Amino acid sequence: MQKSASQKIRLGMFVILGTALFVSALYIIGNRQNLFGRDLELHAVFTNVNGLQLGNNVRYSGINVGTVKGIEMTGQSRIVVSMLIEEKIASRVNTNAVATIGSDGLVGSMLINILPQEGTAVPIKSGDTIQTYTKIGANDILSTLSVTNENAAILTSDLLKITTKIIDGKGTVGMLINDTIMAQDLKQSINQLKRASTNANNTISRLSEIIESMNFTESTAGVLLNDTVAGNKMKDIIENLDISSENIVQLSENLEQYMGEIQEGEGALNYLIKDEAFAQNMDSTLQNIKESSRRLNENMEALKHNFLFRGYFKKLERQRKKEIRDSIKKAKS
Fold first, then answer.
1. What are the residue boundaries of the structural domains of the chain, listed by start?
2. Which one of 64, 94, 252, 265 is most buried, counting C-beta atoms within 10 A?
3. Model pLDDT for residues 32-72, shown as the tens digit of each residue
4. Taking a C-beta distance cutoff of 8 angstroms, is the pair 100, 132 a contact?
């Protein structure tokens, strides 16, 4: 008899404890889902919900203020998300707020973040639709990284081809770097031009002396020069020769100065001509770029085997195979 009463007491305690636990769990779940409070319904339109599900949290400035009530696709790239917002918090949310979809932590479930904006606006009311902002997802980042990797590989290959041609002495830059005799030849040409200018100047001086000593009244040359038309022409010729001589001398001096600066190591042209380590440094730089590209390819390959992104790369592979099959079918038809 006592054993039966003890069992009944235990059974009663178990029922009471179970009921208390059930009520507590119901209260906690209802409180989290805001089932016992008054809510306002708010809408937002997205082009991609990134795996958002019904019942996910809605946060305002980092505070849980509601849950996702419904997700409905109304167009090809138009998805309307309905949210239940606590009435006591809704009075603090203005109509200029912006909704965005994020994740709870690094690999947590998706949620909606409502961000307040500066400026004056009225508080939201039930049934309003607020603006949205779509962040760049991991898929977009990986796609961009893949394109960047391909561009880097192409750039490295092109730079390597250019460097090889420069080292082999092909093209103008290659000739400037590898031909060490060019500076000497150019200097000789300038010296010859300077000597020619000096000779022309001496010839003009001698011609001036001859003209000054000429008898303009009795000599044949004087008769010719006394003619107004012929005299003016001869005068113009001499003046032009004099100006040309001065210009040639000035040009020769400038060219000699430039060649001196090149031979003394001043300016970028001497650096290109004499610095034999320039091509080696450029080749080393390109090799480093190529090695970086190779390591980036290895990182991408390792990323493909990572359990966080394995599904994405498998999806891309299936899409590629499907496109190949579709193209084959299209070609046969």
1. 37-135, 180-275
2. 252
3. 555 555 778 999 999 888 888 898 999 998 888 889 999 99
4. yes
